[in-house]
Write a structure and sequence with these properties.
Structural class: alpha/beta
Number of strands: 29
Radius of gyration: 30 Å
GO molecular function, one term: NADPH dehydrogenase activity
CATH topology of the largest domain: TIM Barrel
InterPro entries: Aldolase_TIM, FAD-bd, FAD/NAD-bd_sf, OxRdtase_FMN_N, YqjM-like
Number of domains: 2
Keywords: Monooxygenase, Oxidoreductase
Shape: globular
Protein name: Anthraniloyl-CoA monooxygenase
């Protein structure tokens, strides 16, 4: 069709003011919620605009059953078009609870504010509203978005299988991630009074149902299962009626005698669609054509209609189409990507639901509620206190089964429950992450280190890690790295350990490592991982691959080098034992020496130490086994791993589980799960708690205790992670840099008065505990007062749903 940008070159503006302007001509391809709602909003604001919607199906055709919105979304609709909002709210069914059915138990959590409506009803309401405003609609017409070069604006809203997007996929930068689980949309005559998740274990494997009522006597049922269960159950050989009958049997205890209904109910895989660009000339993608969000967070129709609102706002704000489209894409992208990220996290939880089916039902339900990170421990505690109290008790019961005499009637929050690793008892589950300080002289820690570690230990974390401490001079990252290869260093560390033990209840772990090819570099604040301009030393690695192109090329290690490194680690281990550390960690992450053996990006060896994951593990396991033999048997050891390289061709999820399993079998007590920093090609997906899913997978598949790290900043997040069974202990770095008393303040907030405090600081502890009782009560009262009533709580007459 050629370049379409010329189609808008003569357009003088969108604003209705002024004389002599031509009416705006808009073609909309697709009469779904996105195209209809945009047409309504634009036609209201620009009555002279000529808007035509083209739809391949009949006006009364619809596929699927119900749609669902939150109260917050309905509030937005009320602001933008009260007329369609009024019609919609007359038709919607409202509910306040989420009900989770698992292992014969039902857990109900209120305060959610959901509403459902038949998709056909929603489309009819929007069609009638658009028609009343003068929008032209042409049905049973296969329109091509290429055919409107004489229009000012073309809205491409033709859904997941958009022909225009597929034709120009290279321009749009389209990526389609076809998820492995199989799902099917069906319906039922079964009434429901909550948004309902049902989990069933069967002879074939687990099945999930996402269900909600959308009108009197009708509910949507989305059935989902993993590909192996789908295959074993033979669902691929069944027709719609056969599949409906099968699912009715699986969920017969809830469905009872109610029918399961079909409407083009075909088993399929969910496509997570992203586009690097949404605009091509005066054509713009909208709704599912632009981006999809998994049904488990109920956002498909919401996403589409809020797209329409954002595009409308851009058209109002800008005088010309190109500027409006640019404004829409720039302003809307962040919110869409946030929703997609939440959907990604949610769908992965459902894809791996088998990991959690051994959990206690209340913990399973808690994990389901918090899976997408939007809902947290404190959030649930505010609106579902009985449910969180059940969760706290179940967590405490698990701790008691480990031999701890903890309270069950009024249990401490999960982060203040103890943890046993061999004979070491960690008094709470907050850890201070290892963080390089680059402040040592010739590897000797000094007064800065004493104050740093001493102050943070007094602040109350259950476990504290040193920075990576190097086992040899040539094993340092920078000239400022701490070491443990001589007597002076050992004496300096002993001084610090003694202070921590004398003045806190914190357990102290030494992290030992060797920089490998990332050695002989500048301190972080002078250029992280950049090579020294002078005063460097020879570096070595699994393979002769420099970190940056201008970094030193490392020597490929031979057997003699390996023997020397093993000896260095053992000698440092013996020094650590004499210094009195409570725990020892081996650093096998972030591209340092031992990590360079584990990752296929950095290990290109052709001998017994390269190739398969078993071979790549061989040398790190040699080092660990030698350390374990030298370390006191009653004291625990951990290993830090990078669970992913965030790069194509790097460590796979299966690799990370295999690595953790191998270390567990070798005697590791805790796997410290980090990610990345292996190679410069890494492209991490940052976000809140972004590395926690890797710790969760290793914990629940490798069967080992894990510690999670990575952009975890609040006590609320710590409790959420622990209660959901995603890790056994939670490490924070930067929050401890800015607040040495982080854990003490959290203890005051949650009323965990058993936290250790030296007598010199006892008055401060007493004061913060007294103040926190009042402050927490005031905050929770403020939140409770400020939370708007859900429509279900307001009991709108239109919301009445027959039982």
């Amino acid at each position: 069709m050629g370049d379409v940008t010329s189609a808008v070159a003569g357009f003088s503006g969108l604003r209705p003011e002024g004389a002599g302007r031509k009416p705006l001509r808009i073609a909309v391809v697709g009469a779904g919620p996105a195209g209809l709602y945009l047409s309504i909003l634009v036609k209201k604001r620009f009555p002279e605009a000529a808007i035509t919607i083209y739809e391949r199906n009949r006006a009364d055709d619809t596929f699927g059953f119900g749609v669902v919105f939150s109260d917050a979304t309905l509030d937005i609709f009320e602001r933008y078009d009260p007329e369609s909002y009024a019609r919609i709210t007359q038709e919607f069914a409202y509910w306040d609870d989420i009900a989770i059915h698992v292992k014969g138990e039902v857990h109900r959590i209120g305060g959610n504010g959901f509403c459902g409506c038949a998709r056909a009803t929603l489309l009819t309401i929007l069609q009638e509203r658009a028609r009343s405003l003068g929008v032209e609609m042409v049905f049973q017409t296969e329109a091509d978005a290429e055919d409107f070069d004489d229009h000012d604006l073309v809205i491409v809203a033709d859904g997941i299988n958009s022909a225009y997007r597929q034709r120009h996929s290279e321009h749009f930068g389209t990526s389609v991630d076809l998820r492995p689980n199989r799902f099917v949309w069906m319906g039922s005559t079964k009434p429901l009074d909550a948004f309902t998740f049902l989990f069933r274990e069967t002879e074939w494997g687990p099945f999930i149902a996402h269900a909600y009522q959308y009108e009197r006597g009708r509910s949507t049922w989305v059935f989902e299962t993993d590909p192996d269960t789908f295959e074993r159950a033979g669902l691929g050989q069944l027709d719609e009626a056969g599949s409906a009958a099968f699912m009715k049997r699986v969920f017969a205890d809830v469905l009872g005698g109610h029918e399961v209904l079909t409407n083009r109910s075909i088993w399929r895989q969910f496509p997570m669609i992203r586009n690097a660009r949404w605009v091509r000339g005066n054509r713009v993608l909208l709704g599912d054509a632009k981006a999809t969000a998994h049904f488990s967070i109920g956002s498909g129709t919401k996403l589409a209609m809020e797209d329409a609102i954002a595009l409308y706002e851009a058209l109002v704000a800008e005088a010309e189409v190109p500027a409006a489209l640019a404004r829409f894409e720039k302003g809307r992208r962040e919110e869409v990507e946030k929703i997609q990220h939440a959907a990604d996290v949610s769908l992965v939880w459902f894809e791996h639901v088998a990991r959690y089916l051994d959990f206690e039902p209340v913990q399973f339900a808690f994990g389901a509620m918090t899976r997408a990170k939007a809902i947290t421990y404190d959030n649930l505690r505010l609106r579902a206190p009985d449910f969180v109290a059940q969760m706290d008790r179940a967590f405490a019961e698990g701790v008691r089964r480990q031999g701890f005499d903890v309270f069950l009637d009024k249990p401490a929050a999960p982060m203040f429950q103890p943890l046993r690793l061999r004979e070491m008892v960690v008094p709470n589950r907050v850890a201070m992450s290892p963080m390089c300080l680059y402040s040592a002289q010739d590897g000797v820690p000094n007064d800065f280190h004493l104050v740093h570690y001493g102050a943070r230990a007094i602040g109350g974390p259950g476990l504290m890690f040193t920075e990576m401490t190097c086992v040899s001079r040539d094993g340092r990252i920078t000239p400022g790295c701490a070491g443990l290869w001589n007597d002076e260093q050992e004496a300096a560390w002993t001084r610090i350990v003694d202070f921590v033990h004398a003045n806190s209840g914190t357990q102290f772990c030494l992290q030992l490592g060797h920089a490998g090819r990332k050695g002989a570099t500048k301190p972080m604040w002078e250029g992280i991982d950049r090579p020294l301009e002078s005063g460097g030393w020879e570096v070595m690695s699994a393979s002769p691959l420099p970190y940056f192109p201008d970094s030193a090329v490392p020597r490929e290690m031979n057997r003699a080098d390996m023997d020397t490194v093993v000896t260095d680690f053992v000698l440092a281990t013996e020094r650590a034992a004499r210094a009195g550390f409570d725990m020892l960690e081996l650093h096998c992450a972030h591209g340092y020496l031992l990590a360079s053996f584990l990752s296929p990006l950095t290990n290109h060896r052709r001998d017994a130490y390269g190739g398969s994951i078993e071979n790549r593990l061989r040398f790190p396991l040699e080092v660990f086994s030698a350390m374990r033999a030298a370390w006191p048997a009653h004291k625990p050891m951990s290993v830090r791993v990078s669970a992913t390289d965030w790069a194509e061709g790097g460590l796979s999820p299966e690799d990370s589980v295999a690595i953790a399993s191998a270390f567990r079998e070798a005697g590791v007590d805790l796997v410290d799960v980090s990610t990345g920093q292996t190679a410069t090609v890494s492209r991490p997906l940052y976000g809140r708690m972004f590395q926690t899913p890797f710790a969760e997978r290793i914990r629940n598949e490798a069967g080992t205790a894990t510690m999670c790290v990575g952009n975890i900043t609040t006590p609320d997040q710590i409790n959420t992670i622990l209660a959901a069974g995603r890790a056994d202990i939670v490490a924070l770095g930067r929050p401890h840099l800015s607040d040495p008393g982080f854990t003490l303040r959290a203890a005051a907030w949650y009323g965990a008065d058993g936290i250790h405090c030296p007598p010199q600081y006892a008055p401060g502890k007493d004061q913060i505990f007294r103040n926190s009782v009042r402050d927490r009560a005031d905050l929770e009262d403020l939140k409770a007062r400020g939370r708007p009533k859900t429509r279900a709580e307001l009991r709108l007459p239109a919301a009445t749903v027959a039982p």
